[in-house]
Amino acid sequence: MITELILECSSFLQHCLIKSEIALGLESKESGTVSFSALAENLPLGYKIVLEDRLLVTFTELNETEIYTTDITKNAQGKGRFYLHISNSTTKTEDISASSNFNAFYTNENIVINGNSHGNSKATVFDLMGRKVKEVQLERISVNNISTVGMKNGIYILNIQYDGGLYTKKIPLNR
Q: What's the 3-state SS for 86-130?
């Protein structure tokens, strides 16, 4: 079976291009081989797409000639193994994991951000239409909270700009 995934950069992702992370969900009823490749159209000059396999701890730059192939197990499903990163070519692929200085999740009417923010760190929440919903200056502590009171159920994008780069995560709000 051949599956094609098309991702388009909308306006809210334009400022995510320094470092962004997109979790890929993969479901398979049978074990076998999966291959990833990329054809980057309209990607700004100097940017590249990198596939991270967190199970095998590998980073592979994807382009018209580079293909990442690996085995998957029977009944593989969900996300958590494969991630796409869009990064500026001045960023080495080994540095992409630096974007995981933070972890974020929704609970009890708050987006909880774990991770020490050093220097001038700012969290911005966007809806899927690219509209800025909230912007908060992070305190220099290990856990920061962003209140979701007044926000509707749905999927939001959290961007954390910090001295080391940019952390991006999809945050589902479902009360």
A: EEECCCCHHHHHHHHHCEEEEECCEEEEECCCCCCCEEEEEECCC
What is the pTM for the complete model shown? 0.46
The closest of 101, 106, 99, 119 to 146, measured between CA atoms, is: 106
One-letter amino acid identity for 109? Answer: E
**How do residues 25-57 score in pLDDT, each as one tens digit?**
888 888 888 888 887 776 666 677 888 888 887
85/91 Cα distance (integer angstroms): 11
Longest dimension (CA), the chain: 48
**Nearest alpha carbon to residue 27 among 86, 105, 82, 67:** 82
102-173: in CATH 2.60.40.1220: yes
Other CB atoms within 10 Å distance of the CB of residue 127: 15
Compute the residue count for the chain.
Answer: 175
Residue entry with tokens 């200056």: 137
Q: Residue ranges of the domains in the chain?
A: 11-98, 102-173
CA atoms within 13 A on the CB side of 26: 26
Q: Quote the CA–CA distance of 30 and 125 in Å, as a whole number.
A: 38
